[in-house]
Design goal:
By secondary structure, the chain is α/β, with parallel strands linked by helices. It folds into 2 domains: 3-152, Glucose Oxidase, domain 1; 157-365, Rossmann fold (3-Layer(aba) Sandwich). Helices cover 27% and strands 31% of the residues. The strands form 3 sheets. A 10-stranded mixed beta sheet has the order 10-12-11-13-14-19-18-17-15-16, sandwiched between helices. It is globular. It starts with a strand and ends with a helix. Bound molecules: glutamine. Residues 46, 221-224, 249-250, 291-294 line the site of glutamine (GLN). Glutamine (GLN) binds next to strand 16. Pathway: Pyrimidine metabolism; UMP biosynthesis via de novo pathway; (S)-dihydroorotate from bicarbonate: step 1/3; Amino-acid biosynthesis; L-arginine biosynthesis; carbamoyl phosphate from bicarbonate: step 1/1. This is Carbamoyl phosphate synthase small chain. It is an enzyme of class 6 (ligase).
Length: 366
């Protein structure tokens, strides 16, 4: 394997081995503590333009299969692992992680101390990084200056969403699913419940959505800073009060912003498959799958018509809210799991119940 370097904005240099694509790359370096599900994490569009580090020490050991993708295209800029499994073994395995990343043109680096890297990110807070190959000029000072001047891209939702609507038919409730860089797991959970889904681009207007006569609107996850898509915040503002809404991750942030709350960037994100979240309405704790770098400011909720329903037990941040009057609720974590536990898939049932309740109300008014 060829030598490859990962250089961070704070001047740290990690020397490792190259795998995947040969190209150099730049991105925000993030880490996930998930112990399995690397295929889901790598294909999650919420990681668009980021360099994903796995804290789990060996990655790639069950290879790549055709079933576990969360998107067709890979949005992330690179991956970092302690040890790459070169000889995967699994009955579903069709290629190695190395072959897959080469085909998708995503560079990887292996053989570095990922615990050290994670501790740097946790201490310093979010950092940008560059992967570069041996043989290319490695002038750390210059690279640090370039990284400091590099802006995190603002058009990542546009890059990850679709441009035209498409149906995913069923015979149940009609759901318009807004794709901000949707994980397939969300569509899978709606399909499992026989929803008649229409997936629409992130910049669809509320008027266009309501003209599809949905029983409910689902707002997906997606990459980047939620304040970078004001048109989506406006769309959600116009939907609240007119249709039941369920939001996941970015969808949760957009509902909160549309209701007057504010968001902030976490020092380092929540990413993994074992984040405990307390449901304040039942007192139950669920283990959740998470992948977010921003959160909603708890204090800002008190000036809105929302109430907090879920909190993160690790750091106390807001993990879910609901509207006090309208049938609108959302969570910051991933109830669809993938990767990670499926303790919270019942929230999709809650969405179906909410739509049933609202359509009954309409029928009785008629
Ligand atoms: N998974 C998501 O939807 C992430 C939401 C947002 N991009 C964040 O990082 O906080």
């Amino acid at each position: 394997m060829k030598t490859r370097y990962l250089i961070l904005e704070d001047g740290s240099v990690f020397k490792g081995n190259a795998f995947g694509s040969e190209k150099g790359t730049v991105g925000e370096v993030i880490f996930t503590t998930a112990m399995t599900g690397y295929q889901e994490s790598i294909s999650d569009p919420s990681n668009c333009s980021q360099i994903l580090t796995f804290t789990y020490p060996m990655v790639g050991n069950y290879g790549i299969n055709p079933d576990d993708f969360e998107a067709i295209e890979i949005g992330l800029s690179g991956i970092v692992v302690r040890e790459l499994a070169e000889h995967p073994s699994n009955f579903r395995n069709q290629s190695t992680l190395d072959e897959f990343l080469t085909e998708k043109n995503v560079p990887g680096i292996e053989g570095i101390d990922t615990r050290k890297l994670t501790r740097i990110i946790r201490k310093h807070g979010s950092l940008k990084g560059k992967m570069t190959n041996a043989g290319e000029e490695v002038n750390v000072g210059e690279i640090v200056a370039i990284l400091k001047a590099t802006e995190i891209p603002k058009n990542v939702v546009e890059q990850s969403s679709i441009t035209r609507p498409y149906p995913s038919p069923g015979r149940g409730k009609r759901v318009v699913l807004v794709d901000f860089g949707m994980k397939h797991g969300i569509l899978r959970e709606l399909n499992k419940r026989d929803c008649d889904v229409i997936v629409v681009p992130f910049n669809t207007s509320a008027k266009e959505i309501l003209a599809m006569r949905p029983d409910g609107v689902m707002l997906s996850n997606g990459p980047g800073d939620p304040t970078d898509i004001p048109e989506a915040i406006e769309m959600v503002k116009d939907l609240i009060g007119n249709v039941p809404i369920f939001g996941v991750c970015l969808g949760h942030q957009l509902i909160s912003l549309a209701s007057g709350a504010t968001s902030f960037k976490l020092k380092f994100g929540h990413r993994g498959g074992n984040h405990p979240v307390k449901d304040l309405t039942t007192g139950r704790t669920e283990l959740t799958s998470q992948n977010h770098g921003y959160a909603i400011d708890a204090d800002s909720i008190s000036n809105t018509d929302l109430e907090i329903t879920h909190v993160a037990l690790n750091d106390g941040t807001v993990e879910g809210v609901r509207h006090k009057t309208y049938p609108v609720f959302c969570v910051q974590f991933h109830p669809e799991g993938s990767c990670g536990p499926e303790d919270s898939t019942h929230l999709f049932d809650q969405f179906i119940e909410l739509m049933n309740k609202e359509s009954k109300k309409e029928t009785s008014h008629a």
